[in-house]
Amino acid sequence: MKITVKTTVNAPVEKVWQLWNNPDDITKWCSPSPEWHTPRSENDLREGGSFTSTMAARDGSMSFDFKGTYTKVDHNRFIAYTIEDGRKVEITFEGQAGQTILTETFDAENINPVEMQQGGWQAILDNFKKYAEAGV
What we know:
By secondary structure, this protein is of the alpha+beta class. It has three helices and seven strands. The protein is globular and about 40 Å long.
């Protein structure tokens, strides 16, 4: 089953692409709630390149690495990658009139309910939108 999350960011696609892919920026927006953060991020944005983002509870009770390998990169337009557990993710960046429609579609995992997965990924996307629009 595939899950889709989406937002419209009030920023040009070039800026959205940069903020989405720059490891220093990723550490500032990649979390679903204030209780979580991403203290470390590495990103080799090219087909065959890989990424790792460490997501951690701020209270130190839990952390995990979110890892994957890029299968397609079309600058300012599209990213596809495979998460380390084999699930596929596709992200489209659609720029129009100074805004960017950002859409992520990913394979659901079998542990958590679909609604929880969709809610978590949407929360991260919403956090990104807030960061990108904050005039960084």
